[in-house]
Amino acid sequence: MILNSLVLKRYFEVFFLVFLLCCSCFLVLNNVLNSSQLATFKREEAAKVSKNFTNNISQRLKVLLGCQDRPLIFEKRQYGNYWLLKNFIRGRLSEKIGCSEAITYCTNGDYTFFDNLPEVVKRWFAPVSFAIFAPGYDFKIAMDSIQYVRNCLKESQLIQKYVTFHIYFPSRHMPDYLPITEEEIDNWPYDCQSSVKPYENSTRADMYKTKNKLLYPINVGRNIAREAANTHFVFVCDIELFPSKNLIKQFFRMLLHNKALIPSRGNGEEEEEYRVFPVPVFEVAKTSSVPENKAELLKMLKVDLAIPFHKFTCKNCHMVPGYGKWLNRTNVNTMEIIAVSKREGKFASWEPFYISDNREPMFDERVTWEGQSNKRIQNYAMCLLGFKYHVLHPAFLVHTPGIKRVNLKDPRLKYVAPTNALIRKKIIPEYHILYGKNTNCRV
Ligand SMILES: *[C@@H]1O[C@H](CO)[C@@H](O)[C@H](O)[C@H]1NC(C)=O
Ligand SMILES: *[C@@H]1O[C@H](CO)[C@@H](O)[C@H](O)[C@H]1NC(C)=O
Ligand SMILES: *[C@@H]1O[C@H](CO)[C@@H](O)[C@H](O)[C@H]1NC(C)=O
Ligand SMILES: *[C@@H]1O[C@H](CO)[C@@H](O)[C@H](O)[C@H]1NC(C)=O
Hints:
Layout: H1 2-65, E1 75-79, E2 82-89, E3 103-109, H2 117-124, E4 128-133, H3 138-151, H4 156-162, E5 163-170, H5 182-186, H6 208-211, H7 218-228, E6 233-236, E7 241-243, H8 247-257, E8 275-279, E9 281-284, H9 294-302, E10 306-308, H10 323-328, E11 336-341, E12 353-356, H11 376-384, E13 388-393, E14 397-399, H12 416-435
The structure holds 2-acetamido-2-deoxy-beta-D-glucopyranose (4 copies).
């Protein structure tokens, strides 16, 4: 009996110890679990808040702009004498971007311009709408080039995210073969190991376009890129122009801070107001790198490693109103309007690059790259309409490579006189009927 109770007592002690052990284990585990949950929770909260912060900017802007989101949709369609593959290959992020979440950099070119694309995308970090002219067998090389930049570069992820490619060609200069399904597009072969990039594998003289003496319809490309954009604001640029960093964020902050800057759409109560936001353009010596920010740019300007764009060929084409003030401004973190001007007087020959809400007149498609005046004719129409140019600081564009000088042997020169005649005899009289006359305006 005594023995029995002793055994029981032992059992009880053992049980008690095991029980204690379990309890402490539970407490410790519970604590560990709790704190890790807390950490995860805190991280999620922080992410939400920062996500909400950007959402908030674009949400408030969306209400102010009254813009609509729309997806990018692939279409094959006729466009004048061209076939257009609109949104042929879409940027994964651009495809669903909200209308007030970014500005679309709209550009154009043929495949020989692809070497500029990585740098543009790295600096812009937002949707790019890229219209490519690719008649005949240039189409195949353009496709090879698209696959190459989307898959073989260190910037390929960015390019896949942001760049939307449109391809167009005259119906009289069809490619032999087009990939028809999405699968065929995706499976278009590429070779990242190749010693030469497809877009650097031939000279201009070898191109279908050159062999068939086709002129480059730059304004068709510009319009295609513009019309395809799904953001409220666009920035129509040439692909050799590199934007300064953080431009979009600063621009949106400026608009939210000063809502009166948002172009009025003339909805009955207010009068419609025509307004665009140009930035100054510079060019840098062939051997210099492209300045990352204004401080670097200013240093380069001091020693002539950078100069205002086309200083030696057409000084007044790119001189912006308020240039002296622009150079003087030291606060580079906040965007502001440095000057407001019409394209008149000293600025009557200006060929500005600007951010706009895409409501300015389209580019006249009768004017080619070779014939020049392709931007000036649009700004002439804008002058007749009374557009006001609000010059932005500290945003800028840099042209590379090299500094342009007058070249009297430029083969394009023979197209200039006929283009000027077309503008004088046909286009200007049409514009006067459409937009009215103003003797202060010049092409
Ligand atoms: C963002 O903020 C709003 C209001 O402050 C809130 O109602 C909403 O739930 C937040 N969204 C997220 C994803 O946290
Ligand atoms: C957005 O931000 C503003 C100012 O920072 C704030 O007043 C407003 O409540 C925010 N709205 C939402 C939906 O978070
Ligand atoms: C370069 O051009 C040659 C001759 O046209 C062609 O055979 C070759 O496949 C091309 N290489 C690339 C990478 O496009
Ligand atoms: C730029 O700053 C200098 C020195 O402060 C001043 O003399 C000059 O008038 C300023 N120029 C403009 C255009 O503001």
